[in-house]
Hints:
The structure is a single chain. By secondary structure, the protein is mostly helical. The protein contains nine helices and no strands. The chain has helices at about 1-10, 15-20, 45-50, 60-90, 95-120, 125-145, 150-160, 160-175, 180-190. The radius of gyration is 24 Å and the shape is elongated.
Amino acid sequence: AEKAAVQRASAPPNLAGIAQAQAPSYQAAPPAVSPSAPPQAGGMSPEDMGKSMHVPVLPLWHKLLFGGVFGFYVATEVLLSTRLALYLETVRSYSGQEAKMAMGAFFFLLMAGRMLFGIRHFPGGSLRYLFLSLGLTLISFLCAYKFHPLFLVGSALCMSWYYPCAMAWLTEHFPEGSEYMISWVQTCVGVLL
């Protein structure tokens, strides 16, 4: 029995088994485990469980920067997609039908851009495409302000690949602990919305 326990402790962790073992139950909680306790039936001691979780050590302002940049993008996309028809009708005197057509074109371009980046692999790092998306979105906003409001519809294509590339950049930049950073960014997005 001791030999089997030693083999389980030295074996690589079975993540599926850990997830099942940590499923919530409605029975009494097990007694507290001291840090020097021997490995339990799951095969991992508390020290091993702490070592298996790779949490990036970043200052709070870095986390807030990542979350803020991605959160402001999502807020911009939501704001534009929910207010575009209202803006075109009230400020630019478009008819209801024309504003709805522009809104449909906005969502079509947003979907088309995301599908294109999902299907086709583009060379280069995702950071390049993040800056390209930001630059083209800014240009389309300026063109909409200066020349014609339908450039706002075209901004959907420029914005479409930003979020998927941002998630790819996070997984590239934080290969260990990307789940932690993505959840942190998602929390900041939720707060900003």
